[in-house]
User: Which sequence fits this backbone?
């Protein structure tokens, strides 16, 4: 009887031991699977941004995490990322903080100014304004859209985000003048006209309609069409005059824009009987040839359907039509020469037998006083050599024509 009791007790103790061992194993297994779950970043989390729950996910590990790893998701949600946090990164205390690092103005900054480093200072804030900027390099040199009071956290709403490169005047440009490359600079502007010019080298030599002050944007609507305004291609102190001419009276068809010619007028003069008494045996007509212009430049060749301004256009016409024809020319004359030619044109239109002839001459003529293209020698025609020499010694004058600069001396007419 005693042995039976002992056997029963031993059986019960064995069953209790098996049960307790199983329970401990199950408890250890379940504890290992649930206690080792930790939150990690489910996506890239930008620095200086508040962390949201949807940016996190739970992962499970077989081994317990290190002591510095944060396992409480509530400690992470709502904190500010101290730096960029890559995806699947475990969170530690050094990755989190309770404030934002932004920039505020040290003084009032008016609209139109560009932000400088001395105008900004870092600031720690509990809240982040909408579109606040935390990148100092991005803020520097941005133009202020509206005035920013001192101590204001700077946001994208305070500055212009996008800017465009445009051409602006670097000095005063007069209306109806030719633009020089040194008159212009390229700058970035946040707001520019739709037709703003963006390449300054393309503007050299172009004619401008309206005057410009330094800093003003150059627009396509400010410019004349390229090479359509004759007045911008007339040499300094000259006048443009057009005359009718035949090919046989203009060195056949060999004249080109830019050539220099001497201009003559032919007239067959009719004399009265009384006048003829003084000219025995000379007949009743005298043929006259008078010089009207000396070294005039050909500005254009004129024809009914078009004007030819350059040698390139001459080549195009000859290529298209096989030969060059024109019935008139436009000359650059001095004021006195222009007056003479205009008088002859008026007499010709009244029926007088007067015809123009041109004689081609070398492109550049020289004299003891320098290049004729730089000096108006007609001013000296009634002066002695000593007087001319004194005039030539007058103070030099800088003449600016388009994008070209020349130094020459102007006679003193006092």
Assistant:
């Amino acid at each position: 009887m005693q042995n039976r009791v002992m056997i029963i007790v031993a059986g019960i103790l064995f069953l209790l031991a098996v049960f307790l061992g199983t329970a401990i194993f199950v408890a250890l297994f379940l504890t290992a699977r649930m206690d080792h779950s930790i939150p990690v970043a489910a996506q890239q989390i930008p620095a200086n941004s508040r962390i949201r729950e949807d940016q996190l996910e739970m992962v499970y590990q077989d081994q317990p995490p290190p002591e510095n790893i944060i396992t409480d998701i509530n400690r992470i949600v709502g904190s500010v990322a101290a730096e960029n946090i890559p995806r699947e990164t475990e969170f530690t205390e050094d990755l989190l903080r309770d404030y934002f690092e932004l920039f505020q103005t040290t003084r009032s900054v008016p609209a139109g100014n560009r932000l400088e480093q001395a105008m900004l200072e870092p600031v720690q804030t509990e809240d982040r304004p909408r579109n606040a900027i935390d990148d100092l390099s991005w803020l520097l040199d941005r133009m202020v859209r509206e005035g920013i009071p001192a101590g204001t956290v700077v946001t994208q709403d305070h500055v212009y985000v996008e800017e465009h490169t445009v051409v602006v005047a670097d000095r005063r440009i007069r209306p109806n003048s030719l633009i020089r490359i040194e008159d212009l600079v390229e700058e970035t502007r946040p707001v520019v006209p739709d037709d703003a010019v963006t390449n300054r080298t393309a503007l050299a030599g172009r004619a401008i309609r309206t005057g410009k002050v330094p800093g003003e944007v150059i627009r396509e609507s400010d410019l004349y069409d390229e090479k359509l305004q004759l007045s911008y291609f007339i040499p300094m102190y000259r006048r443009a005059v057009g005359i009718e001419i035949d090919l046989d009276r203009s060195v056949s068809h060999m004249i080109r824009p830019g050539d220099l010619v001497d201009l003559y007028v032919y007239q067959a003069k009719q004399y009265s009987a009384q006048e003829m008494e003084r000219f025995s045996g000379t007949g009743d007509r005298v043929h006259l040839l008078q010089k009207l212009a000396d070294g005039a430049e050909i500005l254009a060749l004129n024809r009914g359907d078009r004007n030819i301004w350059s040698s390139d256009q001459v080549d195009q016409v000859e290529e298209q039509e096989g030969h060059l024809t024109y019935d008139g020319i436009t000359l650059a004359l001095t004021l006195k020469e222009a007056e003479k030619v205009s008088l002859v044109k008026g007499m010709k239109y009244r029926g007088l037998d007067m015809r123009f002839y041109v004689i081609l001459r070398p492109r550049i003529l020289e004299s003891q006083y320098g290049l004729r293209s730089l000096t108006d020698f007609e001013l000296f025609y009634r002066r002695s050599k000593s007087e001319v020499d004194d005039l030539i010694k007058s103070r030099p004058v800088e003449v600016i024509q388009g994008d070209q600069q020349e130094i020459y001396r102007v006679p003193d007419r006092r």
Remarks:
- The chain is about 20% helix and 25% strand.
- The radius of gyration is 46 Å.
